[in-house]
Sequence to fold (132 residues):
Amino acid sequence: MKAILVFIDGTICDTRPRHHLVGIPAFYQPKEMLRDMPVPGSIQALQELAQRYAIVYMGARPALALPTTEEWLRKVGFPKGPIYLAETQAGRLVLARDIGTQYDFVAGIGDRWDDNELHAELGCASIILTCI
Fold:
């Protein structure tokens, strides 16, 4: 199935209200993460894309954040899709190599320049948004 890789933080999830917690464990506390707001227009855009493509999520988060990430995506209305998390770029590249064999990625959507590296690994179009 054709798929789109969507980065979470900064692309569809506005984490700025908890940036004062960067570097301390509270940054990934569920009560803090569940206060994040979706980037305006992102829910509708992904709902429309999900009608034609599988949506695959990737985040620069620790594995322990997976249950809260799943809850947040569901709570705010994003389409269902698998979620892959790795805190480092090297970890996300390993994930990209693994999932690249499972999906036919047509595009990746991110908000950071280094997201291009992951999109290149998948061999898909790279869309970098600067909406926050």
User: Anything to note?
Assistant: The radius of gyration is 14 Å. The mean pLDDT is 94. The chain is about 30% helix and 25% strand. The first strand starts at residue 2 and ends at 7.
